[in-house]
Design a protein that fits this description.
alpha+beta, lipopolysaccharide transport protein A fold, 2 helices, about 15% helix, elongated
Length: about 240
């Protein structure tokens, strides 16, 4: 081999060895700055501020079964949530996963968490989804139960009936068939009660042509305690003079 070729080959080998050594000596790439995590916080807060219908619907279950012939899905130990709305039950079945317009049937230990801090418990419930959100829930049980903390006090409004229909758009709970409702102090019962969650107002009606009536129990309020050194007197009478010591 000619001396010039040998020298060129040695230079080439030296260059490759230098590149390999430089690559081994080069420091490992620095870990990327967690920009995604930093950007995720504003995204989470933005999602929390979105209206309920724009929030994603999450389905969590222990098992699922899909029948492509009938386009039905069956879940066990299922929890469906959207924002503060939450539905859970032992079993559920529906025609597909289309929440834009569908009806779901829940059975066994059904619990529906709806308006802030409100809940509905039943043996069985049919939940209607409209425009990707819960629009209406019809619960049945022996009995089905409803609970909602009152906004004007620390008391809890609660009731029960054989059937309870919760209308999300109207913000009303309709209790029928052996219906009973309490605002935490007073009670009302009858064949049909309609409770407005937002206005905290109750409407009661009896079925025409029957002897069923509406019953109300009002608990007496205790009289305010008299201030020290003061006595109550009957109207039109002068209170007796306070004896001097």
């Amino acid at each position: 081999m000619a001396p010039s070729c040998t020298k060129a080959r040695r230079l080439l080998l030296w260059g490759l060895s230098a590149c390999a050594a430089a690559a081994q000596a080069a420091p490992a790439p620095a870990a990327p700055t967690p920009v995604v995590a930093a950007a995720a916080a504003p995204a989470a807060s933005t999602a929390a501020a979105l209206p309920t219908r724009q929030l994603p619907i999450t389905v969590d279950a222990a098992s699922s079964e899909v029948d492509y012939r009938t386009n039905t899905v069956v879940f066990s130990q299922v929890v469906i949530s959207q924002g503060e709305m939450r539905v859970q039950a032992d079993h559920a079945h529906a025609s597909g996963l289309n929440f834009a317009n569908s009806r779901w049937t829940f059975e066994g230990h059904v619990r529906i968490d709806a308006e802030p801090r409100g809940s509905l418990r039943a043996d069985q419930a049919v939940v209607e989804f409209r425009d990707n959100r819960i629009a209406r829930a019809t619960a049945n049980g022996k009995p089905a139960q409803f609970e909602q903390p009152r906004a004007d006090s620390q008391q809890i409004a609660h009731g029960h009936a054989d059937e309870i229909v919760y209308d999300v758009n109207e913000g009303t709970v309709r209790l029928s068939d052996d219906a009973w409702l309490s605002d935490g102090t007073n009670e009302i019962s009858g064949p049909l009660l309609v409770y407005n969650i937002r206005a905290q107002r109750v409407q009661a009606a009896a079925k025409s042509g029957t002897d069923q009536r509406v019953h109300i129990i009002i608990q007496p309020q205790s009289a305010p305690a008299a201030a020290p050194g003061k006595t109550h007197s009957e109207p039109g009478k002068t209170p007796p003079p306070v004896p001097k010591s």
